[in-house]
Write a structure and sequence with these properties.
Number of domains: 1
Low-confidence stretches: none
Number of strands: 5
Number of helices: 2
Helix content: 25-40%
Distance between the termini: 70 Å
Structural class: alpha+beta
Strand content: over 45%
Keywords: Membrane, Transmembrane, Transmembrane helix
Protein name: Sporulation protein
Mean pLDDT: 82
């Protein structure tokens, strides 16, 4: 039954998403899901040429599959995005305060 559920999930996800090794704990199986993006290029002018490439991978979350066949999605938390959002909010507050004090 677990393999059937995984096969159905694979059909619903995109081509660039990958599954990690399933981990069983008690009657629940966790299946980590990630995303891999590849990019590359090649070019040149006259006698010079060059190229480059990049690979980016990130965790998306995990599916939990219970013994009764219930599937739940648990998204990964990006601490970097949370910190970036806090810094952006702080910068906005500092600029707003500076503008307010300057007008007085």
């Amino acid at each position: 039954m677990e393999k059937d559920v995984l096969d159905r999930l694979k059909g619903h996800l995109g081509d660039h998403q990958i599954f990690g090794e399933p981990v069983r704990q008690g009657d629940t199986t966790l299946v980590p899901v990630g995303e891999v993006q590849l990019a590359g290029g090649w070019g040149g002018r006259d006698d010079e040429s060059g190229g480059g490439g990049a690979v980016r991978g990130r965790a998306l979350g995990a599916f939990s599959i219970r013994a009764d066949g219930t599937v739940s999605w648990h998204p990964a938390v990006s601490v970097n995005k949370i910190v970036w959002g806090g810094q952006l909010a702080l910068a906005t507050a500092v600029v707003a305060s500076a503008i307010a004090f300057r007008r007085r």
